[in-house]
Every structure is written in C-alpha cells, then in structure tokens.
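Progress against Task 2.4 (sequence-to-structure conversion) is shown through the following example record, which the project officer requested during the mid-term review.
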Amino acid sequence: MKTLIKNATLVNEGKTNKGCLLIENEIIRRIATDANELAEYEPFDHVVDAEGAFLLPGVIDDHVHFREPGLTHKADMESESRAAAAGGVTSIMDMPNVSPLTTDLETLEAKYALGQEKCRINYSFFFGATNNNTHLLQHLDPKSVCGVKLFMGSSTGNMLVDRQEALLRVFGESPMLIMTHCEDTERILDNQKRLRDLYGEDPDVKYHPELRDTEACYRSSELAVQMAEKTGARLHIAHITTAKELELLEAKPLCTPGTDHVQKNITAEACVAHLWFCNRDYARLGTRIKCNPAIKTEVDRDALRKAITNGKVDVVGTDHAPHLLNEKQGGCIKAVSGMPMIQFSLVSMLQMSNQGLWTPADVVQQMCHAPAQLFGIQKRGFLREGYQADLVLVRPTAPWQLCTNDVLSKCGWSPLEGESFEWKVEKTYCNGHLVFDQGRIDDGYRGQRLLFNR
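Structure tokens generated for the chain above:
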C-alpha cells in the first residue's frame, strides 16, 4: 500500500518546508521537495493533495490516564485512543494508578494485552513503584516498558512512596527513566487543616492553589532532584507547575545538537492545561480545571510558557485524566482532580503559537521529537525516511468554537468547551494507516506496542 501526501508544509527538526512524503505500508519511504521526484514509486494507491496544510510527526503523549482496567465508567482504552487519534496523537504512555494498580509484572502484562486488543494508536504503560515492590524493578525489560512512575507526594490511587529507604531504592535500582509526581504530603495536609479552619470542610476550588501550593511542589521536586543527583538516576519530573521549580532545571537543549543523544539526566514535562489556564480561570470554570498539581498563578503560567523555548521544559504532555462531571462536584477537597485534554492538545498548542508564544516547529519539538528522544522510542517522532509513518495533517482554518458534541472522550466534556481555535486536525496516520480522516475514525485498526532503544 502506497500513499503519497503532496504539496504539504512539512514541519520537522526545526525546519518548515514545502514538500511531499511517501508512505509505503507502515513506513515513511521517501521525503522529497516535489512529487516528480517520486515518479519511480508509481502507481500510488492514494494521493492526498495537502495544499495549505501542515504535515507533522504524530504526537507522542508521555502522560495519560486511560482508566483501564477498573475505572471504565469514566474512560477506557477504546474511547480515549479514539479521542487521541482525532487529536493527532499517535502514541501514548499510560499511568499505573488504575484498578488493580500496575505494580506487579502480571498486571503490567495483562494491561499490555488490553492495549493490543483495544488501543487504536500505539501504546506503552508505566510500571508503578510502591514502598514494597522495588525488588521487581530489575525484572522490567527496558526495551519494552516506557518507564517507572513514582508518586512522591499526595495524589490518588494509593501509590504514595513516602519512605526514604524505598525512595532511595527506586532511584538507585530503576533500570529506566523514573517519572515523578512531586508534591509534599506533609505540606498539603498542613494547608488542608488551615484552609478548613478558615473556610469549612470543603473550601471553594479557588483555594486549590493554596492547598497544593508552590512550596508543596518545590519541596518534593527538590528532593527528587537531590536523589537523582546522588544516584545518577534518569529523572523526569511530571507536570511542572511553578516558576520556583524551574530554578531546579538546566536551561539547555534536551539532546546534543545534531544528534538524538540525550544530554540531560534531569528533565521536566509541562502539561497543556498549565500552559493554557491560570488561577483566574477558576471563577469561570470551577472544578472543571481542578487537577493535581493545581493550576497556579498567571506568573507561574507565563514562566512555564517561557520554559517551552528556553530549554528548561523538555516535553509537553497532557496528564489526560477523564472524570464524569458528577465526580467533579464539590470544592478543592471533595471534587476529584483531573480533566480530559488529549483530543485538543495539539490544536491548543498550535493556537498558542498563533499568539506568538512559540512556533509550530517548537510544538513539534516538544510534543513529537522530545518524547521520542527522551524515552528512546524506536523509529518514531520524526519525519524521517525509514521511520514508522506516524503522521498528522493539520490545517489553519477560520476560527471555530469547541462544543460538547465535538468531544470523543467517554466522560463527554472538555474544559476547553467554548474556546475558539484556528487549527483543525484533518488526518491522522498511525503506522501508515489512516486512523482518523476528517471526523471519521477507523475502529478496525489497532496500534502497536512501543519499543525502546536502551
């Protein structure tokens, strides 16, 4: 099967050029400046004239919660991978705080079996560290598991690792990258008592940034950095939310220039929601934007935005975490934390590029190239000959408003409803297969398990 995409604007490795790309079966066979250069490959099974559209590598989201197994009333691999495909996401890395927790080798492999059965796009799953399972880390296969997830502070899912000796074992023995959720539990509990004394049992959600405040994040992130420096572990701090945490990070490119060699031992992820929203949005959206760590001040948001291009933040993910709206009722304590973001993450980042915050090439670096480089994903994340044909075709459009009917996530809502965008995802190819085409999803296709160069 051969598909020619011609007259597209290719965005790849810092360059934006008009060109053509040939897909043969699963692979990017050739990239050329003109379709005439590909005449030797005729006849083509499909020809896509992409005049006016931009062709990007498929997005790799390093941080999602697809809720399966055990929490499928709000989301599942089928529903969320469909939403991901509609958003130009071709690969995901899913978190272990499901039911049962992905904290032993048997549940990890059972989850991979679910992915093979249900996921419309490519997938990998984190192994969850606990206080008591560090002896299993040496049995993980670094070539087929994306990483170890470590909850170093207060969160959901009963996976908090709070014993110093267990933390040191995780950092000292993990054979692969450790991705941390950093919030200091003791600080959060003290804040909770103070806020309840002031405002009652369940204070308004506007106090969520005071409950899970800057100091709670900084204390935990600082400890993670100290442990990584002490042990030499590869540390990736999830969902950075504060300007103060950025002080812990180096301002330099992820990789040695001109190579895919990762030159940083400590890296950081920012999430789209923390780049889009700030604390002023609680008045408008309430618990719809309640997440852990909390969305914080405009100053913090602006510092995160600058960090996308100054080398301190390395990857943009979503922390896609669907809940039903009736689970979002309450205040900063009772309402559950998390929001669905994956379907509109790419168009959100491109919309912010229209505001001059960064370029489409920066978006591709943060959402496609960097995840592939950081995790060492085999032959994905770039428009390169011989790589898997994971691609997304996006088109600048007249402004359109996101409505509830646009949402494909099982939970049925988005915090971005009512927002206007000037980009649309037109087509998504996963391993050369057209999984999303102008509103239509091929439900017969299944993605592949990600493999890693380690």
